[in-house]
Amino acid sequence: MLAKRLSIVSLYTRDFEASVKFYEGLGWTPDVSLEGFAVINLGGAPLAIAVLDHLAADLGTEAAELEDGGRYGRYVPGVLVDTAGEVDGLFEIVKNAGGRILTNPATQPWGVRNFYFTDPEGSLWEVAHVPNLTFGVQDAAIWPVP
């Protein structure tokens, strides 16, 4: 069974700096801020803001295919799991349930193990394990990663 945990919503943006500045204007200060990637802890699931080219690279496509809703849109709900092995197990579950697999499980250079899939309507999802990420009340992901 896929974990019943909506752990993160990722927003992929053309203008990373302007997006971060906008959310800071709402009073939402990033808890993690790296080049082209930021995480803002919100009450349920964190909001990740990242450069659109990052998602395009993960999916093996061009950023233009994701522009203005494009093929998959630019918001990606994510299910974060406790172990890298769970990513592989959930890959099989998603595949057997009829999900359209976009990428196979892979460990990224920064240590995250993930894969992407779509539901029958084409909505994009990510399943990932982030090393050292912990979960708190109601399984909310806790950033920054220790």
Plain-language structure description:
It is a single chain. This protein has 146 residues and is α+β, with helices and mostly antiparallel strands. The chain is built from three helices and eleven strands; from the N terminus they run βαβββαβαββββββ. Strands 1, 2, 3, 4, 5, 6, 7, 8 and 9 form a nine-stranded mixed sheet that branches. A two-stranded antiparallel ribbon has the order 10-11. Strand 10 (134-135) and strand 11 form a beta hairpin. The protein is globular. The relative contact order is 0.19.
Mean pLDDT: 84
Low-confidence stretches: none
Helix/strand structural class: alpha+beta
3D shape: globular
- Tell me the fraction of residues in β-strands, as a range: 25-35%
**Total E-strand runs:** 11
Specify Rg, calculated over alpha carbons: 15 Å
Distance from N terminus to C terminus (CA atoms, Å) equals: 28 Å
Provide the helix percentage: 10-25%
Query: With helices defined by DSSP (H or I, 4 residues minimum), what is the helix count?
Result: 3
